[in-house]
């Protein structure tokens, strides 16, 4: 412990990380640098500065990372159509490599020996933070208080605050939501409380923050025209937007239409199953629209190969391997495929559902002359299909002739 002189802490200003500040100072007798990131969580981050100052912190970093998050992390992931275990759009997972990156940058700027985070020893985030940190700075030391201290509940944390005169709003701390929540531009997640019973239906209106219930969404559908360049959204309804602005807008209109609610049990990397609820309005729309524009621009085999690679890509993101060589290799292949993913998609939002109702592209491979059920004027010779079928059936016919049992 004595060789650690300075630690960079991922600091939210909440109860847990406020306790960690004091605990680091006392346990390691070190200087603490706080880092607070605005990645679109929808809460004011500036109050963290005052809280950090009140605890004697001299070096305080508060960074607006919304555009970097959307541009360099979310958008590349959505080019891959990444979904973990068929449903989860990786909202928490994709934020962690950015936070790890900034922790290391600040450690380098300030000459810190270590970084610290408030992730628990049961969750995935400890893995994601630390894999990212070690990939970017192999010799960095990591302090994970939840794996070291004996503070095991909110009550013990509040007792610690009282004993050490840590400035905490006790009234609000006691009124805190029973759910553990995490939010950024891509989603807000809910875990704990009643959700720990997988049979309990998550219909608590006080839990959901971003979306109306689909039953309460408008009776008239909302239509959006989404413009893509090289697989990324660049405009909505003809208005050019930055990546972060795209997500903010889609979260708003999607939430108003009840888009993006999800209730799943997922397999954590550390080995346990976990039940969580998510609101991902922008991501749900982006996923549907992106597959819509790819449907007319990607070659069949390129599209199928992408779908085969996607689960591996999603697993890498979920498990914390954003900075791994295999994720970077997959990203290069995916980005190469996106050079032709240009054009417009029209989507219909209605009471919790997203439907693609139109798509067009200067790079479209859809040929009306060939696809038509009407007279194609010789564009496609239907007689060619006979030989195609017989050649593909050859191995099946040989096996049948040899008496192979295929049932």
Automatic annotation (TrEMBL):
Positions bound to L-aspartate: 120, 124-125
Residue ranges of the Arginosuccinate synthase C-terminal domain? 179-398
User: Cross-referenced SUPFAM superfamilies, in alphabetical order?
Assistant: Adenine nucleotide alpha hydrolases-like, Argininosuccinate synthetase, C-terminal domain
Per UniProt, where does ATP bind?
Answer: 10-18, 37, 118
* Gene Ontology cellular-component terms listed: cytoplasm
Q: Which residues form the Arginosuccinate synthase-like N-terminal domain?
A: 6-167
Write out the residues that bind L-citrulline. 88, 93, 124, 128, 180, 189, 266, 278
One function term, GO molecular function aspect: argininosuccinate synthase activity
Q: Does the keyword Cytoplasm apply?
A: yes
Q: Where in the cell is it found?
A: Cytoplasm
EC?
6.3.4.5
Its pathway, per UniProt, is: Amino-acid biosynthesis; L-arginine biosynthesis; L-arginine from L-ornithine and carbamoyl phosphate: step 2/3
Catalytic reaction equation(s): L-citrulline + L-aspartate + ATP = 2-(N(omega)-L-arginino)succinate + AMP + diphosphate + H(+)
Sorted keywords for this record are: Amino-acid biosynthesis, Arginine biosynthesis, ATP-binding, Cytoplasm, Ligase, Nucleotide-binding
Q: Does the keyword ATP-binding apply?
A: yes
Q: Name one Pfam family in it.
A: Arginosuc_syn_C
Please name the GO terms of the biological process aspect recorded for this protein, alphabetically: argininosuccinate metabolic process; L-arginine biosynthetic process; urea cycle
Which EC main class describes this enzyme?
ligase
The entry describes its oligomerization and partners as: Homotetramer.
Family affiliation: Belongs to the argininosuccinate synthase family. Type 1 subfamily.
Q: PANTHER family from the entry?
A: ARGININOSUCCINATE SYNTHASE
Q: What is this protein called?
A: Argininosuccinate synthase
Species the sequence originates in: Dasania phycosphaerae
